Prior knowledge:
The complex is a heterodimer. By secondary structure, chain A is mostly helical.
Amino acid sequence: MTSTSTTSPAADAVEHELDLTRPSGSRTARNGCASAFMVFATLLAVIPLVWVLWSAISKGIGSLLSASWWTSAMDSADQAKWGALHAIVGTIEIGVITSVISIPIALLTAIYLVEYARGKKIARVISFAVDVLTGVPSIVAALFIFALVVTTLGGHQSAWAASLALVILMVPTVLRSTEEMLKLVPDSLREASFALGIPKWKTIVSVVLPTSISGIITGIVLGLARVMGETAPLIVLLQFNQYFTVNPNTPTFATLPTIISNAYTQGSADTPTVWGAALTLIILVMGLNIIAKAISRRYLRRMGK
Amino acid sequence: MAKRIEVKDLNIYYGGFHAVESVELTVEPRTVTAFIGPSGCGKSTVLRTLNRMHEVIPGAYCTGQVLLDGADLYGKGVDPVAVRRNVGMVFQRANPFPAMSIRDNVVAGLRLNGVKNHKALDEVAEKALRGANLWDEVKDRLDRSGASLSGGQQQRLCIARATAVEPEVLLMDEPCSALDPISTLAIEDLINELKEKFTVVIVTHNMQQAARVSDRTAFFNLKAQGEPGRLVEINATDKIFSNPTEKATEDYISGRFG
Ligand SMILES: Nc1ncnc2c1ncn2[C@@H]1O[C@H](COP(=O)(O)OP(=O)(O)OP(=O)(O)O)[C@@H](O)[C@H]1O
Ligand SMILES: [Mg+2]
């Protein structure tokens, strides 16, 4: 629109000598303005994150530095000797149960969708369902499992039930990321394998999966990191526990998020113990993220030769 | 134990698109047949129906018969996997397995079909790589990724991979289009060697190459833009290049095409 009044740059270049100097005036000013806005927006995004992290570290580090944090539960009479071992173990245990159930379901479904049902109607239907499931709020997943396990089947709250709710949250994300990774594997590799007389299942196991495995693992770890911090299912499907237990079948089962939520309902949220639990949870999730980063970096290096 | 290929009234489709129409041709055992013709006339498409790779593309199908020593590849109860074990293929674009080492790439066809003997596999790998004129360049880095090679090296790796399984018939889709003259000559020598035992079909845009390596040449063409491709003529290579029956063939090989 603006070019109607001025001569076009191409015509200029033909008639005049080549001019490569940076234009002064409005373009430079707009550029500077836009840059300033971007820096400002970035600060807005980063400051709260740093603030949260700083609070958790400064208020929680004390708890983490005492040896009892890592070695005892909250069962001794002396509050100074309290620790979070039971909750750390509980969170990790639920993470493991959730992964063991979710990963095979997600991987097999993704392989089915990409390798066997591609372009078919059923694939589109399942894909749509997965999209919907990806958006399910965790509290809804928790209520669904509560209704199913406790109300309908007459069971009780337990780490099993909490894990099932987390499975509902983890499967769609891992499924979707695995699907994307499998789709990134070029068809020419599958064709190369078929042309050697290698059967389809063997092609998937020996050519397609190894080519995309790092990306798949990255997706799994990120999916796990996401559900490890979920709290709603744990509040709905577990009762607070001070004692050490690894039995996933008891209603009273400790996790890091429930230490925090329980303290809050008791009106004592801003204590070193609560911040310690928060920091431990952050460290766990961040550890998973770092692992995912490391794996995906290796993956990129390999794909980029 | 080379095999004769007979193609009868073959029509090939990509979904609703009729790509190639009524091809009739015979490839004798222990010969090299070259497919020539302008880009987009269906040479790759015909080639891919000879080992049932065409149907791998969603929606793609064909009608007619492809007989391998009299047995219809598209007959009832025929396993495409078994077909492809006997009819190997080198693709137009290099496609080494990036997650496998150079050595594992070469022996993939054997290893993934159950051959476990490491020493035997190493020997096969060396022989196939030597045949593809790649051994000297990679012998010190056999455990590096197949994707770590240059484009031309990757193509030779794929040729080595296809020959390592010793298929009865080898289909090669422009195997030399990314190669320098020295490697091209080496591949042509390899084709001459393969011909002693196997049947080879090669697609090429290089007339000299067709003249050098093939016994028979098939010329494919499009009747008109938007019409399906078809086989114009197939004959002894000498005859095609000196005295073709069809005017279109003569125009094409003498560069007066289009
Ligand atoms: N995967 C595909 N889906 C749909 N149409 C295709 C596909 N592959 C090829 N075609 C079409 O089929 C026709 C023949 O293509 P083909 O690849 O066989 O040509 P070609 O003779 O090998 O050409 P070139 O010399 O460029 O390799 C072309 O019109 C092409 O557009
Ligand atoms: Mg082609």
